[in-house]
Amino acid sequence: MSELYDPDPREAATPSRPRRSRALIITAVVLVVAFFGLTTFSTVYTDRLWYRDGGYGGVFSTLFWTRAVLFLVFGLLMAAVVSANVYLAYRFRPLFYPSSPEQTGLDRYRQAITPVRTWLLVGIAVIFGLFAGTSGLGEWRNYLLWRNSESFGTDDAQFGKDIGFYVFELPFLHYLVDFAMAAAVIALIAAALVHYLYGGIKLQSPGDRLTGAAQVQLSILLGVFVLAKAADYWLDRYDLVSQSGSLITGVTYTDDNAVLPAKNILMGIAIICALLFFLNVWRRTWMLPSVGIALLALSAVLLGMIWPGVVQQFQVKPSQADKEATYIARNIEATRAAYDLEDVEVTPYTSAAIADPKSGQTVRAQASSAPLVDPKLVRQTFEQNQQGRAYYSVADVLDVDRYELDGQERALVLGVRELDQSGLNPGDRNWSNLHTVYTHGNGVIAAYANQRGADNNSEGTDIQWAEGNQTNADGTAQDALSKAVGGYESRIYFGEQSPEYSVVGKAGKSGKDVELGLAGATDDEERTTTYDGAGGVPLGSTFRELMYAIKFGEPNFLLSGRVNGNSEVIYNRTPRERVEKVAPWLTIDDDAYPVIVDGKVQWVLDGYTTTDRYPNAARESFEEMTDDSLQQSGGLATLPTDEINYMRNAVKATVDAYDGTVKLYAWDESDPILKAWRSAFPGTVEDRSEISPELLKHLRYPEDLFKVQRYQYARYHITDAGDWYQGNDRWEVPEDPNSANNLQPPHRLFVDQAANEEGATQDTWALTSVFVPYGKNNLASFVSVNSDATSEDYGKMSVLQLEDQNTKGPGLIANEFSNDDNVRDALLPFQTGQSPPLFGNLLTLPVQNGLIYIEPVYAVRAGSTSGYPILRFVLVSIGENIGIGTTLTESIADALGVDLGEGTPPPDTGGGATEPPAPEGSVDQQIRALLTDAEASFEEAEAALAEGDLAAYQEAVETAEQLVSDAVALAAERDGDAAGGDTGDTDSDSDSPTDEGDAGE
């Protein structure tokens, strides 16, 4: 390559640049490179410190070296290919230039390039190397999946290949082929330009237009490109199984019978063309390669575009349902497998005949746990009552969880009292206050999700607090949750609203505490404190201070007296951000929810493994599938687009709200994608068995996954290809009646399950939603998924499919609420105010073999300029009846036209009958049945007495005594008939001691 640096004797000497000008250019380049280099170094260095401090140094090392190696390999490879071809084109340039106007015009450019041709070559190599290296760096996910690929254990229906080939191997193979094509094209263009500049290619001269060297080089590069294109055609065949079409995702009849054969033919033609280009090195004629490339282009148009259109138009469209039946069936099977919808339990259901006054107590009991406290509408109420200071706030949409309070599981609406620096006075927003004084939030605020307070015995019209820093109306502390969990660390340094960074730590033990907060979770008194957790990165040296000053663009890291030898900097503070840093291969659920476990507030996040490469499964936009009236932001960050066709809740992650510790637990340990990532990042994800029993109680079925599943199930509940094609039973998620153009969100609540063999019922913590027929407003089905992570049935999806087509959906029910005379009259005083009533979540709940709709209504306190919404009314719809009241009990009573009282409803569990059954069987069987029911009622009475509910105790005792009296009366009647010499027929079989009904007595 030494000739490249020697002067060309054929070229005239050109004057050199002034030294001063050259020095200025070099200085400018050095300064720019130094600036970007220092910025990049500070980012990498501080990232390394953060990962090591958090215990994930291995993640940083794997990411860094994988990216660095990919950058260097593909960057150097591109630079070498391009620079080598440029050098060869220059090296084999013609010795003499023919005299022509074309060459005379090029002389000026040759003279301009000659002094800098070495630097120009280096510059070209560096520029293209940087572009290629950056492209390779971005392929780290595909590379690691390729290196650590796993088997799915299932073959696709078209090619018979394991699904792992499409998910793990195919994307990186595509990149390699695309890189080869790009390198060939860039090298071809660069070589052609050099040949033209130095006379190897003559466009306007008579005779041969290319020299022999130019023809050889360009023929080889064209041959390499076309050969790579052949490989691209081969890989394109496998892309058909995940290609989105107008009907389905995956292979269709046209793909199978036109596109796939066309790809095979084009691949063969491309290979032949490549051979012709390679032969052109010796034959020195462009005739055959030109014919070959023309044939390839013509075939690409005829076979790749026109022929599939002909097949689609004249073979498929006239009988599409029959032609596509096999491929639709594949799509249905693959979609249900990809979204884990294969084992959905479907039960026929009816909503008729539940508006029976006799069923009032049962309906009341089953609906008593309905969450009337709307997580979105009560945010302002939480802040006004419990925020303590203007610089505290809670999330826009609160979370719903369950805790065992006083021995009973209760649903709670919770919000973390987080730091909100926007509440500070503008004059107080200086660097010292924002980053060293106001550093953290304090505690959790919680309210009972229904209207019943801590004793579970009464209903109120206002929020019933389970945790807060105020006092109840009776002067007692709002600390039921704190007592239940045994207290907890209330300082919140890591949360959804945390500032970008804080500098914590004092100079010594005798130093002054400067961080401002509250004294405790249930205390409103201010105090100063100093962070002593493990979540900060120590500064400790001037060099580190300099690095963080560059990272955050803040010189106070070097100048402020608040930064000392013991200082630490806390950053990457939102739970989602921390999990994405330690597991960048995960898609994180939009909702991080707080739980109190082992004396700490922990943020729990669900992590998903996703792909858009699952063969034949429906591919849709993640944002579209999860969008509803409560969705705040999308969570997809691991794919080039937000389209997916496979999803698993692979990981449960926790982030300590005090010290920021991140833990990842494998949840779906059978997921092949999770296995691949665990192999790529060993030791990062802990086994599922490491989840503590206390934490397990609070894990729940994730919302984003459920939204994706319900979106797909709306169409893929149909398993017959013909019915699916016709679309006559297609469902959809209804629009939220209170939020135009937004889907109704799912709701977390206790669902009363069917009675077991002993007659007892059991509430299940579930995530629920409903479906309506596509384009209609009547109800199609009610769907729920078991959300109790401690249950063996966790994740089991159940669908109650309505047998009739006349059941009203949420939209129609909301319309009936608005048009009901009693509801209008009750809301009229609030309609005229400045703040109209706010309608909460419209809940659908199965009760008494039917359905009940429940909707809370909120209004701002009258005459208040800074009021907050309070629960004013509860609306219910049972059958054709509508009820309104200030409590759920009053509303049910109003709808049924009965007086249910305000005492405790019958326990949600337990199975005693409260009314004697209709007489069946012999007299002895009737007596036994009455005594059995009486025993059950006595057990109910004992349970009510243990809970301190005297009203329910008395009611159950009276019922039991009546049942015993009825049994005694029947026995007396039987004995009297026997004494009177009754000689009528007897049911000897029924009264026999060996009767089946006597078994076990």
If you had to describe this structure to a student in words, what would you say it looks like?
- It is built from 29 helices and 31 strands.
- It is an alpha+beta fold.
- The model is unreliable at 1-5, 10-14, 754-760, 902-918 and 979-1001 (pLDDT under 50).
Short overview:
The protein is of the alpha+beta class and 1001 residues long.
Secondary-structure map:
Blueprint: H1 19-53, H2 57-91, H3 101-113, H4 117-137, H5 140-147, H6 163-197, H7 212-239, H8 253-283, H9 287-316, H10 320-323, H11 325-338, E1 345-349, H12 360-367, H13 379-386, E2 392-393, E3 399-405, E4 408-416, E5 418-419, H14 431-437, E6 441-442, E7 444-448, E8 465-467, H15 480-485, E9 491-492, E10 501-504, E11 515-520, E12 523-529, E13 537-538, H16 542-552, H17 556-559, E14 568-571, H18 575-582, E15 587-588, E16 593-597, E17 600-611, E18 620-621, H19 622-626, E19 643-644, E20 646-656, E21 662-666, H20 672-680, H21 693-696, H22 703-716, H23 721-726, E22 731-732, E23 747-752, E24 763-773, E25 781-786, E26 797-802, H24 810-819, H25 821-831, E27 838-839, E28 843-847, E29 850-860, E30 869-878, E31 881-885, H26 888-896, H27 923-946, H28 950-979, H29 988-991
Parallel strand pairs: 1-26
Antiparallel strand pairs: 2-5, 3-4, 4-7, 6-9, 7-8, 10-14, 11-12, 13-14, 15-17, 16-17, 17-20, 18-19, 20-21, 22-24, 23-24, 24-25, 25-26, 27-29, 28-29, 29-30, 30-31
Helix pairs in contact: 1-2, 1-16, 2-4, 2-6, 5-6, 6-7, 7-8, 8-9, 12-26, 27-28
